[in-house]
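User: Can you model how FE2/S2 (inorganic) cluster sits in this protein?
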Amino acid sequence: MPEPLTLPVSTAALCRDGDLAEGQALGLPAQQAFIVRHDGVLRAFRDSCPHQPGAPLAWRRDAYLSADGRHIVCHAHGARFDPATGVCTAGAALGLGLTPLALHIDTQGGVHLAEPPSSGD
Ligand code: FES
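Assistant: Here's the modeled complex, given as structure tokens:
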């Protein structure tokens, strides 16, 4: 899985940690990104399908997941992505991956796009 992109830390919280239940997604149009909760973990990705870079995945607001909430789906051509890794597991983008973005959760539970933690080297 590629390393998360480094982005400027968002100052205002994009949502609260508890806002997204398992299998839910939140679109962030201003950031061209979206957040999903999968296996209890919040993950963020760039809203750009690797099949046609720049094409957003959702067909309507926050519609990034399959009906069962287990896969990220690009509604243009039906590619399915693993929410844990962003890798396409079926469809037009097979073998390609979404771009992961690093998240930071502040002490009040606010969720921010953030720089990845320093590796210490
Ligand atoms: S643009 Fe996403 S599958 Fe084709």
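A couple of observations from the model: The radius of gyration is 14 Å. Residues 49, 51-52, 55, 74, 76-77, 79, 91-93 surround FE2/S2 (inorganic) cluster (CB under 6 Å).
User: Helpful, thanks.
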